[in-house]
Amino acid sequence: MRGKIIGFLVLSVILVSSCEKFLNPVQELNITEERLFDDWYEYRSVEMGMYGLQQKLVEQLFMLGELRGDLVSITPTATADMVEIYAFSVSRTNEYASPVNLFKLISASNNFIKILQDEHPEVLDPDNPVSNYDKLYGEALCMRAWAYFNAVRIYGKVPFIHESLATYDEIEQYVNSSGTYIDSVYISFSRDGYYNDTILNKPIELEKQYYDLEMVVDVFSNQLENDVKAVGVNHYIDNNDISWEVTIWNEWARHALLGQMYLTQGDLVKAADHYEAIMYNASENRRYHLDNSFGMSNWHNIFTNIDSREHIYTIWFNKTNFQQNQFQSFFETWSPHNYMLKPSYQAVFNWEATWRYQILSEDLVHPEKSKMIFVGYPTDFHRGMGRSYLYVRNGVPISEDDYVNMFQLRAKEDDRSSRAIMEGMDTVIFKYSIGRTLFDQDASYIIYRAAGIHLNMAEIYTYWAFEQNNLISTNTGEAIKIVNNGSNYTINPNREQLGIRGRIGLGRDSDGIGVGNINLIHDPFTNEITGYLDLTGNFLGKQHYLEERILEEKSRELAFEGERFYDLMRIAKRRNDPSFLAKMVSQKFPVSQRDHIYNLLLDESNWYIDYFDE
After folding, report:
1. Is residue 152 a contact partner of residue 158, using CB atoms and an 8 Å limit?
2. 262-265 — which CB contacts under 8 Å span 24+ positions?
């Protein structure tokens, strides 16, 4: 069996051996079997091969997390596989539905975990001092848990991959077996006997098991909570690259993954514990506190560089090292790219229906008498146009003057003139093109970042019930502080905190989000008051209202980053209301298809890709 393990992992090393950022430049990369795991750098090389496997997953994660949501639509040049994902009619041959790369990552993680356990049994001893092998072990456990968690969100259930299955062919035979799979050659070696000290050589029977979400979270959260001594080898001393620490699994990423798993499962208390460990850390550089580091026009720098003040775990790409992805080809209209996917109308609307600096006279006793003193200025300038999306006509971006004029005309209800400016414009997903030239195709893919943690914590506070003075309460006020102005950071008031909206110039009393008994409704294009929503005595209604405002904020802050469909799934499940997801997703479809998609998504089984037939 060790031979099969080595073969797979050496292949992984070869796949990424060109990446000098990842590997010690003086090491010999042509590792022979007899030398594998002789010294530290061989372990490090195999670790990097596993990160290469994660790189192969990013396009699939985007397609399944965004194209099935409400913020991304297809264009006429979309591939047949993209159309299938978009229409929830996925075939088994669909490249984005295939579990192959997830299984490869699980298999490689299994193998590496087993090797570390065999060759460095001290990783299993919690009392043994922490070494780099413990940190590698933590990385591998995080990779495996993350792969299983993504798989179960995609497929609804996932086969448990036994550690003895060392190649994808074996995994495929196991998955396709009728129930019992015979792994015919299982060889276990003594610690120092790579070749002739075999202590076991016999077939083993593997009963096929499927894990649902509850089992995946229970099993792998337990491992991450109890079996991990440390996560993330510090390679900075070798490569002098401080961004390294967030392009590998690390302790902050472990907390983020656990928080996400518990939030999805519905355990808000445990999720909050892990998110708070990230949000309220006492690091020296305000790490993951939402200050002005990426404020206002600097917000777009989140996507031009990898920065540990915002990035928690990011899958790194670099053209120089021949590590690229297809995002620019998917999104850009200009040649040689293919413009296959675009922002939905609702995605663009969420940015453009945002208003700042408004002044209103609010009468909560007689809300019909409330009126706007000054309507303010439209659109989310710092996260929207030119950052997350772009207007383009014949490959040429819209001019700033035309963009401003369009809004001014629309605010004056001169729809004819505003439409004339926009005639022939395409909308482009731009987040993966910021700061990149035509052929770079190497935008990094963010898995976890600070804003996402804060917004998930705001969602938790909307529902997290606690007892106070013999009353059951929720702390919706904390949720609002997190989103608006960062005043939730009372533990250290000397540190500048701005909140999600505050750091891009929103979040004041006039333009922050909130919820009360009376909630004014505004025209999205003029910002004039058109009515109000009365939630007096309707506490659940207030929770739903605030949750939806947070979800809107996520669409502005985190659009196209891979989590949208799972956010919708989680909220619909919490409400026990599949129509919530069905309505949100179906609204991006043409009118002729909307009812079909809505009715299809009322059945929760259609939220998952039915890949594993028992």
Report:
1. yes
2. 262/217, 262/221, 263/456, 263/459, 263/460, 263/570, 264/149, 264/153, 264/213, 264/217, 264/566, 264/570, 265/213, 265/214, 265/217
Which residues contact residue 512 at a Cβ distance below 8 angstroms, ignoring those fewer than 6 apart? Answer: 480, 483, 484, 485, 501, 506
Q: Which of 181, 134, 146, 142 is nearest to 162 (CA)?
A: 181
User: Could you read off the pLDDT of 521-552 as tens digits, one per residue?
Assistant: 999 999 999 999 999 999 999 999 999 999 99
State pLDDT tens for residues 104-141. Answer: 999 999 989 999 999 999 999 999 999 999 999 999 99
> How far, in Å, are 229, 232, 239, 588 from residue 131 at the CA level?
9, 11, 19, 51
**Is pLDDT of 509 > 90?**
no
Characterize 196-207 residue by residue with b for buried, 16 or more Cβ atoms within 10 angstroms of its Cβ, and e for exposed. Answer: eeeeeeeeeebe
Please name the residue that has the structure tokens 């000397």: 494
The answer for 322, left when phi > 0, alpha when psi is -120 to 50, beta otherwise, is left
What is the pLDDT, as a whole number, of residue 298? 96
Per-residue tokens: 210:
């499927």
Closest alpha carbon to 277 in 342, 231, 330, 323:
231
Q: Which helix (H) or strand (E) holds 467?
A: strand 465-468
The structure tokens listed for 1 are 């069996």
* 3 state SS for 270-305: HHHHHHHHHHCCCCCCCCCCCCHHHCHHHHHHHHCC
C-alpha to C-alpha distances, 306 to 399, 538, 562, nearest whole angstrom = 29, 44, 18
Lowest mean pLDDT among 156-165, 342-351, 526-535: 156-165
141, amino acid identity = L
> How many Cα atoms within 13 Å fall on the side-chain side of residue 458?
32
Listed range (64-68, 92-96, 462-466) with the worst mean pLDDT: 462-466
pLDDT in tens, 414-459: 999 999 999 999 999 999 999 999 999 999 999 999 999 999 999 9
**pTM of this prediction?**
0.90
* Least confident span in 227-241, 269-283, 543-557: 227-241
The vertex-400 CA angle with 395 and 405, nearest 5°, equals 110
Q: State the alpha helices, DSSP H only, in 64-160.
A: 80-87, 100-119, 132-155
Cis peptide bond prior to 336, omega within 30° of 0: yes
